[in-house]
């Protein structure tokens, strides 16, 4: 059960992110109109915005200015939105619905969807580069580098490549974990690091703890996603292990079963909480976002 205090906090920050994304996306009447319309269609008014919420919570822990964290969180969300648009394409997961609406290539066309993804990725880095996010410009460069690494072939895109390669294969649990640490986890870790980097200088020990925390919740996010997917498919079609399993992709539920997958998510939640307890300042918001990730129903 989410506390009303957390709900209020999250609602306020969701509004900040929405306004920031709205104002930085190209306007509808600005040419090329179809591309800009499609960019706004995929980014605005949808999604849980988990990554920006993590950035806000990590920023709060580290004394960051909220306007700076908003920009950093929006940049991460733009990368996330681009990844979903490309992931939905026929050459990847071939999905027709996203966030309850037709996917970008269905509503527009495949070429537009490709360009939407490219343009959102560029816009993310533009946002990070054009505003002052930290007092130290070298630290800001580190943030840009961090997001570039997390989104690239040694992060999210690499994880996606492993995912595509895993179709029809049996993966061991460590192999599945390796894939998700990259595909889903890298961007979640970047959200935490970038949010915190907007605040006070981070010493290595604190950075290491925060990163371990983010690794735990990145994996937990994916485990819960697999469980929710399996539950939704079971409710709709009878006994199956979820859409990915139907597509012949290994998932935590197909490897562990639903009960053990839930237990794994809870163990990761506890590890995340324990890691936060080792920080010297209260990490209430990060704990609340962690619990939201584990307890979410969508
Ligand atoms: C195409 C380079 C490239 C990468 C795609 C993250 C990813 C890599 C694909 C997404 C596929 C997917 C559905 C993975 C399951 C976990 C996940 C990232 C779900 C979607 O994220 P949410 O739940 O989405 O945060 P919302 O809609 O709430 O923003």
UniProtKB/TrEMBL annotation:
Its cofactor is Mg(2+). The keyword Magnesium applies. SUPFAM superfamilies: Terpenoid synthases. It comes from the Bacteria. Pfam families: polyprenyl_synt (PF00348). The keyword Magnesium applies. GO terms for molecular function: metal ion binding; prenyltransferase activity. GO terms for cellular component: cytoplasm. InterPro entries: Isoprenoid_synthase_dom_sf, Polyprenyl_synt, Polyprenyl_synt_CS, Prenyl_diphosphate_synthase. Keywords: Isoprene biosynthesis, Magnesium, Metal-binding, Transferase. One of its GO terms (biological process) is terpenoid biosynthetic process. Belongs to the FPP/GGPP synthase family. This is Farnesyl diphosphate synthase. It comes from Nitrosomonas halophila. The lineage of its organism: Bacteria, Pseudomonadati, Pseudomonadota, Betaproteobacteria, Nitrosomonadales.
